Description:
Layout: H1 11-32, H2 35-41, H3 48-51, H4 53-76, H5 78-89, H6 92-98, H7 102-131, H8 136-165, H9 173-188, H10 194-202, H11 213-220, H12 222-251, H13 256-284, H14 286-303, H15 310-337, H16 344-372, H17 375-396
Amino acid sequence: MNSTPGLRQNWKQFSLLVLINAFVGGMVGLERTILPEIAETDFGIAAKTAIFSFIVVFGITKALANYFAGRFAQKFGRKKMLIVGWLFGIPVPFVLMFAPDWNWIVFANILLGINQGLSWSANVIMKIDLAGEKDRGLAMGLNEFSGYLAVAIVAFLTGWIASEYGLRPYPFYVGVIMAGLGLLMSIFLVKDTAPFVEHESKGSKDTRIKKNLFWEVSFRDSNLRAISQGGMITNFTDGLAWGAFPIFLASAGLKLTEIGIVVAIYPAFWGILQIATGKLSDYTGRKKMLWSGMLVQALSLIAFPMVDNFFAFAIISALLGTGTAMVYPTFLAAVADLTHPEDRAESIGIYRLWRDAGYAFGAIFSGVIADMFDISLAITLTGYLTLLSTLWLYVGLKKLNTPVNGSKNSSKKI
């Protein structure tokens, strides 16, 4: 395999990783529509904080797995992280099918969090290695497109299967197929991308290797700090949407199939539009795409509880997905812009640690507010928190005009 970065010469491996990441995303889609319904119907759980516990566990586990994936990918190799991630994913659909009580569902989400943290992180890092600087935004757009479009498709599919054949076990058969294919393809077809890092590092004039990357990405560097909080609030929003939207929509009188459509529209727009938004950020600079995308998310959340019919919910869900599509690949590309090639894997892992911790914070927040007041207030307050994050990005992100990854003629405008 040629070790020169670039999408054109590495399109076969890149396309393979896009497909595998669709299977990774599809594993999350298994739960997206029907798990809150399973909590109430099969296990008699009414408290929102208890229902959202599976998202809290998923978010914490995935966040930690992201961090360790970033650290260990550089040490042990990207491919090994991808395979180990799939080994944790194999049991998930079986546990969800046959869980005798809610604690088993929570355990399944520990496994799912590790699967997502390791497999998705490995995919992100490998695609950045393959793409090189020129198409970094496009590479992240394609990566997130495949993953979140799969979330949408599987979320709709499981909702439809559940409405036709029951909540368990049939919807989870899809997960058995995806996990099996993902593992086999990762073992036999994927090639590690370590040679691309070595190639890029040799040609790099960038001397910004950091000793304490966690401190640098989380707190010291103002740009990376702003990016980390923005990513966290984005998944704070997604954690709320994951748990609150199906419950809110059911209380608004929507049928399970309609709930499945509305819930699927959000990640569908999120997934599909990232091809365009990721590449567009390569030209416009990251900052414009980031703060404007956060603003669209905030306004969508504030508007969501104000409507009361299927078509209005569908439109707002599409807008929320559009705003998320604007920021998701752009955050990842921005972190890669701001870090040395040899720091990239760990820096992305640290960013993803903060970003996916947002799942847990969002689920806890929405569950507590929903139990104390009502679920519509939880959605509205999350919208205003997202507005504050938008302001932080607008003020905290500076325009940089410095060489990225040592390229002589390259300058990045964040």
